[in-house]
């Protein structure tokens, strides 16, 4: 709980909701007749709507990226370290939009919403959504603000995939693309991890084929297990080792299956905490969106060819100990951008935190982000001069 | 801008695609893009330099050249440049091959170890040369493969490379009749443009 709001915080924010009645044809073939998106904004949109920055969230992220909802909040938004007055994504300069993606469980239409056709909660019936669908809805949200072109679009992990998709799908609607700890498509191993996560949810007897809400229950065991697995892959061996080592609860081995090592307790806690804030169906949808994303497939696997449409400047960032989205995966995007002659910079940040590093305020990383966005800011001042 | 960079930029044709190996703070690429409409990328591993390039909007890639350049296509660039760094790599000869695989031409600058002052240091004083220009001790120098003007020319010859242009200049990158006449003895910096 903040006693006072820090000076470099965007302060107290209130989420907004945008309703859309234009039907949305999804990549899976189904159509959503209407939907809503919950979002937050930080900073002021300028007169010609040229200073907007869009934040794309990752697997378990949401619209609450910066600031506090109330003075009772224990923690600020998930990327408060990067967004705020004077921070790398400087709200003194930029108008920042952060939304909860379609299919989410934090206020945007998703499996926990009511299906207008049946009057019942969507649950498992909610259609599959893809990165492409998200970009489409984000573009519609931008239209609401009269934002023709974003100064920059920024995202890490699954968020980075959305940024990449933007650069291909709407090349003239962004000037800068910051793609952090991401990949042009999931590796086999990544899909495999996602499948284990999904299976652990689906095999939970409380899952009821995704219609657990109508059974008034939650597949906490399955979802918690999925999160435990995910969590391990977001950390590095070293960061877990540093944090817990072989620390024990007791001085001697208990020779049972209760918590003995601290890391066990940590994972159980993380898994359980997650089930209180996240919906299992949404988790399943998000993992499928990850699995399906593969823009190069549109051109027979030639990523450079797909990216030849892009017009923006790119910043790619990876982290040395990230093995879920390893530096090599970012470099695949970099190489394709070089091949197609695009303006790209790439930096590989020394970090111990594994994939999670993209959420940490690592000085070199923050400086790179600040420098990249500073370019977009200069462009603004030139325009307004 | 460093004088050798200015000299190099005179050797790069307008509207070309350039790869600058060890681009530092991006001064050369920035100059080339502003004055010659040149596009390209710089490779760099120094964190501070990388962030300066990002700030300036110079496309920079964090990549260790010693770990290879395999990610670059054959003949994907018009010119591959390496200013004052060739002597710092594990295998300068193989690197030169790589530069000419990636680029149609390569421009290389390096400190000429054959310069008379170095010879005095080594030949008379009996010490490895330490100067304002080469400020390192033998044990902490990044310059692990010093060569002379003649050595490099011989390497090009043995590889069957065409030396399209060369310059032999003093510490201030000035060209004199004596540096031209006896480059191996009088030039502090050697500059070569080579192709296959």
TrEMBL record, chain A:
Annotated protein name in UniProt: Homoserine O-succinyltransferase
Record: active site: 157, 322, 355
Coiled coil spans: none
Pfam families xrefs: Abhydrolase_1
A biological-process GO annotation: homoserine metabolic process
Cellular component terms per the entry's GO annotation: cytoplasm
Family, per entry: Belongs to the AB hydrolase superfamily. MetX family.
Assembly mode: Homodimer.
InterPro entries: AB_hydrolase_1, AB_hydrolase_fold, HAT_MetX-like
Localization: Cytoplasm
Functional summary from the UniProt entry: Transfers a succinyl group from succinyl-CoA to L-homoserine, forming succinyl-L-homoserine.
Molecular function terms, GO-annotated: homoserine O-acetyltransferase activity; homoserine O-succinyltransferase activity
The keyword Hydrolase is annotated on this UniProt entry: no
AB hydrolase-1 domain residues: 51-359
Signal peptide interval: none
Catalytic activity: L-homoserine + succinyl-CoA = O-succinyl-L-homoserine + CoA
Keyword Cell membrane: no
Automatic annotation (TrEMBL), chain B:
CDD domains: AdoMet_MTases
Organism: Marinomonas communis
Protein name listed in UniProt: Methionine biosynthesis protein MetW
């Amino acid at each position: 709980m903040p006693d006072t709001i820090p000076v470099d915080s965007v302060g107290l924010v209130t989420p907004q909701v945008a309703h859309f009645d234009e039907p949305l044809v999804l990549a899976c073939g189904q159509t959503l007749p209407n939907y809503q998106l919950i979002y937050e904004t930080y900073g002021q949109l300028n007169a010609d709507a040229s200073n907007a920055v869009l934040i794309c969230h990752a697997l378990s992220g949401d619209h609450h990226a910066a600031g506090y909802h109330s003075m009772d909040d224990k923690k600020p938004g998930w990327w408060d370290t990067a967004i705020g007055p004077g921070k790398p994504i400087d709200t003194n300069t930029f108008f920042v939009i952060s939304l909860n993606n379609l299919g989410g469980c934090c206020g945007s239409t998703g499996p926990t919403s009511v299906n207008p056709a049946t009057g019942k909660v969507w649950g498992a019936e909610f259609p599959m959504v893809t990165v492409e669908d998200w970009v489409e809805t984000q573009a519609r949200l931008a239209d609401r603000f009269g934002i023709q072109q974003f100064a920059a679009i920024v995202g890490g992990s699954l968020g980075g995939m959305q940024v990449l998709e933007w650069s291909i799908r709407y090349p003239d609607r962004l000037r800068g693309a910051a793609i952090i700890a991401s990949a042009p498509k999931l590796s086999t191993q990544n899909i495999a991890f996602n499948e284990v996560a999904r299976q652990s949810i689906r095999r939970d007897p409380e899952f009821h084929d995704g219609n657990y809400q109508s059974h008034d229950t939650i597949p906490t065991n399955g979802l918690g297990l999925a999160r435990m697995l995910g969590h391990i892959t977001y950390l590095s061996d070293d960061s877990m080792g540093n944090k817990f080592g072989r620390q024990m609860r007791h001085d001697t081995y208990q020779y049972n299956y209760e918590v003995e090592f601290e890391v066990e307790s940590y994972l159980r806690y993380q898994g359980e905490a997650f089930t209180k804030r996240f919906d299992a169906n949404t988790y399943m949808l998000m993992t499928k969106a990850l699995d399906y994303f593969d823009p190069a497939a549109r051109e027979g696997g030639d990523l450079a060819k797909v990216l030849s449409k892009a017009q923006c400047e790119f910043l790619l960032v990876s982290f040395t100990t990230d093995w879920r989205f390893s530096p090599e995966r970012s470099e695949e995007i970099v190489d394709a951008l070089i091949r197609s002659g695009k303006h790209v910079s790439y930096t590989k940040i020394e970090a111990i935190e594994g994939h999670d590093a993209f959420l940490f305020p690592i000085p070199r990383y923050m400086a790179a982000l600040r420098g990249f966005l500073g370019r977009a800011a200069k462009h603004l001042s030139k325009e307004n001069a | 801008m460093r004088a050798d960079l200015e000299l190099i930029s005179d050797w790069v044709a307008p509207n070309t695609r350039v790869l600058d190996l060890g681009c530092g703070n991006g001064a050369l690429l920035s100059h080339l893009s502003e004055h010659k409409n040149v596009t390209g990328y710089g490779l760099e591993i120094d964190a501070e330099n990388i962030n300066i390039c990002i700030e300036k909007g110079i496309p920079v890639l964090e990549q260790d050249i010693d770990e290879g350049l395999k990610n670059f296509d054959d003949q994907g660039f018009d010119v591959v440049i390496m200013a004052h760094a060739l002597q710092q790599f594990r295998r300068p000869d193989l690197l030169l091959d790589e530069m000419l695989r990636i680029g149609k031409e390569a421009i290389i600058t390096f400190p000429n170890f054959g310069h008379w002052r170095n010879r005095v240091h080594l030949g008379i004083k009996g010490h490895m040369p330490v100067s304002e220009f080469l400020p390192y001790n033998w044990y902490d120098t990044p310059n692990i493969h010093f060569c002379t003007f003649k050595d490099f020319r011989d390497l090009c010859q043995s590889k069957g490379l065409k030396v399209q242009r060369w310059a032999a200049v003093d510490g201030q990158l000035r060209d004199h009749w004596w540096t031209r006449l006896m480059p191996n003895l009088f030039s502090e910096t050697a500059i070569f443009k080579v192709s296959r």
